[in-house]
Structure to design on (128 residues):
């Protein structure tokens, strides 16, 4: 399989020179993905809404590459306020129930857009 580059059409991809996701053989590597509304770039104020949108955006990129959330083997969550951990944890628990990938959650003083409170990265491997 050749390398496949997936773009979301987000404004930062051409500016920073990166792809939303890169597929190499059976592996997919998803770049840090925030809760931007596709098309508008709007960001919800509520961390739970942002988390749900992060997951929706991530799932869209996975699907575009022929993967789905069930292929996830690792997630990294970046939270601007670690006090939000207890709020967002159940959202991830629900999304990844039965999949149970590894998870590292990291406090980050700020993300690429000051409106963002959460961002996720995913590594996925195509199941055979």
């Amino acid at each position: 399989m050749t390398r496949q580059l997936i773009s979301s059409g987000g404004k930062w991809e051409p500016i920073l020179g990166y792809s939303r996701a890169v597929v190499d053989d059976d592996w997919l590597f998803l770049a840090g993905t925030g809760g931007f509304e596709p098309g508008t770039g709007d960001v919800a104020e509520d961390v739970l809404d942002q988390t749900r949108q992060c997951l929706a955006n991530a799932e869209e990129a996975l699907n575009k590459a022929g993967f789905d959330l069930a292929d996830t083997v690792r997630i990294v969550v970046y939270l601007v306020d670690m006090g939000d951990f207890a709020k967002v944890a159940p959202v991830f628990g629900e999304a990844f129930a039965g999949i149970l990938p590894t998870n590292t959650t990291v406090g980050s003083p700020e993300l690429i857009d000051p409106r963002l409170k959460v961002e996720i990265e995913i590594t996925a491997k195509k199941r055979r």
Summary: The chain has three helices and six strands. The first helix runs from residue 12 to 16.
